[in-house]
């Protein structure tokens, strides 16, 4: 998979050199290219923003540098390959595990994290006519720019690529993964030592009884979901819960 990121803070994307994403790049599973938007400015001050039409606070990112950057990056593709453009904005559609899975199946993503009050609307209109453009928000809070959301989205997408996670089973029971525990958050986990500061391990996990362990894990997942995310239980398919769940 190829990922391009266009930003005025390329150094903000340095974490993409580290850990899971960094290793995927080193192994050649991910081709990540970070670009400085100011490379596509032509004035002495490398201006990327201007005051908003209609007045109001803050600044708006000018369309011309984005247009030149995106045209050049898109033209650098192999043959007729077309990227999906991912535009981080607090006004976008929610970034969910479902969207991460969808985007992880695309060969090429271009991210356009903005600062200030966002990008001149005509850029989104222009590319939206010719490309698949997704305006995406990572949650109901406002950040100063789209760079941190890009780090979030790239990590969520990269770990889904074949061969990137060490153990192919590792995302089988992720919170939000489809499957038996769909609609429930993951429950608590334990490792050695068997006693720490006077606290032991739930007996059932030491029992070797796989059926009872699975049932206990499901009960714990249900309790935690009910406590932390009751909305997930409200919205779940009732058929995904058994009699024992309903008694919790
Ligand atoms: Cl994608 N950008 C900004 N600036 N703030 C956000 C966001 C994105 N998602 C949630 N808050």
Automatic annotation (TrEMBL):
A matching Pfam family: tRNA_m1G_MT
Binding site for S-adenosyl-L-methionine: 138-143
GO biological process: tRNA N1-guanine methylation
Keywords linked to the UniProt accession: Cytoplasm, Methyltransferase, S-adenosyl-L-methionine, Transferase, tRNA processing
EC code(s) of this entry: 2.1.1.228
Main location: cytoplasm
Gene Ontology CC annotations of this record: cytosol
Alphabetical list of InterPro entries matching this protein: Alpha/beta_knot_MTases (IPR029028), tRNA_m1G_MeTrfase_C_sf (IPR023148), tRNA_m1G_MeTrfase_TrmD (IPR002649), tRNA_m1G_MTases_N (IPR029026), tRNA_MeTrfase_TRMD/TRM10 (IPR016009)
Enzyme class: transferase
Domain spans labelled tRNA methyltransferase TRMD/TRM10-type: 1-234
Record-level Gene Ontology MF annotations: tRNA (guanine(37)-N1)-methyltransferase activity
Entry's localization field: Cytoplasm
Complexes and interactors: Homodimer.
PANTHER family found in the cross-reference section: TRNA (GUANINE-N(1)-)-METHYLTRANSFERASE
Similarity comment text for this entry: Belongs to the RNA methyltransferase TrmD family.
Protein name: tRNA (guanine-N(1)-)-methyltransferase
Organism: Streptomyces caatingaensis
């Amino acid at each position: 998979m190829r990922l391009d990121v266009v930003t005025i803070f390329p150094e903000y994307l340095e974490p993409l050199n580290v850990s899971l994403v960094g290793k995927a790049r080193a192994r050649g599973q991910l081709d990540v290219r970070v670009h400085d938007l100011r490379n596509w400015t032509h004035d002495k001050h490398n201006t990327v923003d201007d005051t908003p039409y209609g007045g109001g606070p803050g600044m708006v990112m000018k369309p011309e540098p984005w247009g030149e950057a995106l045209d050049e990056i898109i033209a650098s593709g192999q043959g007729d390959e077309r990227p999906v453009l991912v535009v981080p904005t607090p006004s976008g559609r929610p970034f969910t595990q479902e969207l991460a899975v969808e985007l992880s199946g695309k060969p090429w993503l271009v991210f356009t994290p903005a600062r200030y009050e966002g990008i001149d609307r005509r850029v989104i209109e222009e590319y939206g006519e010719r490309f698949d453009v997704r305006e995406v928000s990572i949650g109901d809070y406002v950040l100063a720019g789209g760079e941190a959301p890009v780090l979030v989205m790239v990590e969520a997408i990269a770990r889904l690529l074949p061969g990137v996670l060490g153990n192919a089973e590792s995302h089988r029971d992720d919170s939000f993964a489809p499957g038996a525990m769909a609609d429930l958050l993951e429950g608590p986990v334990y490792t050695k030592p068997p006693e720490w500061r006077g606290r032991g391990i739930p007996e059932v996990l030491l029992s070797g009884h796989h059926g009872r362990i699975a049932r206990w894990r499901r009960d714990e997942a249900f309790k935690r979901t009910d406590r932390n995310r009751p909305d997930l239980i409200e919205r779940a398919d009732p058929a995904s819960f058994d009699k024992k769940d309903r008694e919790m």
